[in-house]
Design goal:
Layout: E1 2-6, H1 14-20, H2 24-27, E2 35-41, E3 43-54, E4 57-65, H3 74-86, E5 92-98, H4 103-109, E6 113-118, H5 121-125, E7 131-132, E8 135-136, E9 140-146
Parallel strand pairs: 4-5
Antiparallel strand pairs: 1-2, 2-3, 3-4, 5-9, 6-9, 7-8
Length: about 150
């Protein structure tokens, strides 16, 4: 397994990024200002984009694993890499997600704790309703951990 930074042609990973953020113009808001990492295990398995949100806060804006390779630890490995890579540079690692029984428990297992939320984020920022596990995503829930 190898993780490397992607500096050029980040859009080549768009199909993978769309698994975690299904509207391209939303990805466009952070892809150029974020640092992107790709995890390879023979071939590409997962990607992640992190951004500096100021005041010692690093945010995971997008983390996605190829569907056939989910539940194999690649996402957790990327998060561990991010924690190690930025320890001492940032104080807080945070992630924003919908209130989904898929994503919230994953982040909690990785050591994140619920912090705050943005009311109506998904209904006000996406041009269509987003559903995960049959539940419409409405509010953005932020989870944080110290690094």
């Amino acid at each position: 397994m190898k993780i490397r930074e992607i500096k050029d042609n980040k859009k080549q990973y768009l199909q993978l990024l769309l698994l975690a953020d299904e509207q391209e113009n939303m990805i466009d808001r952070y892809i150029s200002r974020g640092t992107m990492y790709a995890l390879y295990d023979d071939d590409i398995k997962a990607v992640c984009i992190v951004t500096d949100e100021g005041n010692g806060v690093l945010e995971i804006k997008n983390i996605a694993t190829e569907p056939n390779n989910q539940k194999k630890g690649y996402g957790k490995s990327l998060i561990q890499f991010i924690k190690n890579q930025y320890k001492g540079t940032f104080n807080i690692l945070q992630v924003g997600t919908g209130d989904s029984p898929l994503t919230v428990p994953f982040y909690e297992k990785c050591g994140f704790k619920k912090s705050h939320y943005i009311k109506n984020f998904f209904t006000e920022n996406y041009n269509h309703p987003i559903y995960e596990c049959g539940i419409q995503l409405i509010d953005m829930i932020y989870l944080q951990m110290e690094i």
